[in-house]
Amino acid sequence: MRTENVTEAELAALAHAGDRDAFGELVARYAAQARRLARTILQDPDDADDAAQDGFLSAWRYLGRYDPGRPFGPWLLRIVANAAADRRRRRRVRQTDELSPAAATKSAGPETVTDRRALKEAFAAALQSLPERQRVAVVLFDVEGYSHGEIAETLGVPEGTVRSDVFHARRALREPLAAWKGWKEHGS
Amino acid sequence: MTHSDFDHSPDPVLGEALREVLTVGDDPAFVHRVTARLGAADTWWQVLGTWARPGMVAALLLVAAGGFLFGRAVMPARSDAVADATPSVIEVSSVLGEDRAPDLNLVLVEGIGR
Q1: What is the rounded distance in angstroms from the CA atom of residue B30 to the CA atom of residue A174?
Q2: Which numeric CATH code is attached to A99-187?
Q3: CB contact under 8 A, A28 and B27
Q4: Segments making up each domain of chain A, as ranges
Q5: Residue A174 and residue B43: Cβ atoms within 8 Å?
Q6: Which CATH architecture describes the domain A8-91?
Q7: Are A86 and A53 in contact (CB under 8 A)?
Q8: Helix (H, G, I), strand (E, B) or coil at A75
Q9: Nearest residue on chain A to B23, alpha-carbon basis
């Protein structure tokens, strides 16, 4: 069966009936988003992929709870976010993975960093220094293009909280982004 | 940065930077890895569910067969009981079928005798 033009609600219904190809199509459509979201919560890429996989397998088990009248993405990403948070709680992320904003700024300042890789790492460190909810909100909004309402549904928080989180995350990332972007524009 | 932090539309520059930092690539391998594990993710009730229909049919056939055999075993005894009761019914009918009123003693004897 060709599944490229089938809607997500239809794919979910087929998958719920046991059609693994239909679920495979849903996995293919959301793999990149789910992996990025998991990596936003868990810094380690392998951990993130394991969490994303856990999320997809949970979604497969609980497809009966999906409301086809609502978009599939926020429903799935909420499960992935929960799976990532569960994994982080279980594994107790090492202290060294979490950088304080001061440490991130110190190691990432444009005056001490000159190469592209270091600027990219500084930007990544600045992202990781943000509170988890701000990280997720800004990634879902600016990378994945979800609306504030959809992100609120994914995170289980009010829409106003999402707006605030996106604003604060953008403000915190502005400087390291400008340093990286400036280098890319002038140095590449 | 021309995009304001207050903007209610996605910031393409920030979005591109975040995407570059967070994307690990090789999605097809990941998709394959997930779909390969779907069988292992089946819960016991999903496995049970696949057996539900044939199980129901088998149970219905068993009940039907059991009912048939039980019926065959019980039917002769029941026939005998009906046969034993039939003469009494005929006797009562004959009493009720008389032109004149039945003898009260006969009716009482018939009733008490049952």
Answers
A1: 32
A2: 1.10.10.10
A3: yes
A4: 8-91, 99-187
A5: no
A6: Orthogonal Bundle (1.10)
A7: no
A8: helix
A9: A36
Which ranges of chain B have pLDDT less than 70?
Answer: 1-6, 41-54, 76-102, 106-107, 109-114
B34 with A124: Cβ contact below 8 A: no
Distance from the Cα of B9 to chain A's closest Cα (Å) equals: 8
**How many angstroms separate the CA of residue B81 from the nearest CA in chain A?**
55
B23 in contact with chain A, both atoms CB, cutoff 8 A: yes
Give the contacts of B3 (CB within 8 A, at least 6 positions apart).
Answer: B11, B12, B13, B14
Task: Please give the ipTM for the structure prediction.
Answer: 0.82
Residue of B14, B34, B38 lying closest to A170 (CB–CB): B14
DSSP B101: P
- What distance in Å separates the CA atoms of residue B21 and residue A123, rounded to the nearest whole number? 8
Task: List the structure tokens of B82.
Answer: 């009906």
Residue range A130-186, pLDDT digits in tens: 999 999 999 999 999 999 999 999 999 999 999 999 999 999 999 999 998 776 655
Query: Burial of B59 by CB count in 10 Å (0-12 exposed, 13-18 middle, 19+ buried)?
Result: exposed
Q: pTM for the full model?
A: 0.67
Question: Contact B30/A31, CB-based, under 8 Å?
Answer: yes
> Which residue type, as a one-letter code, is found at position B53?
R
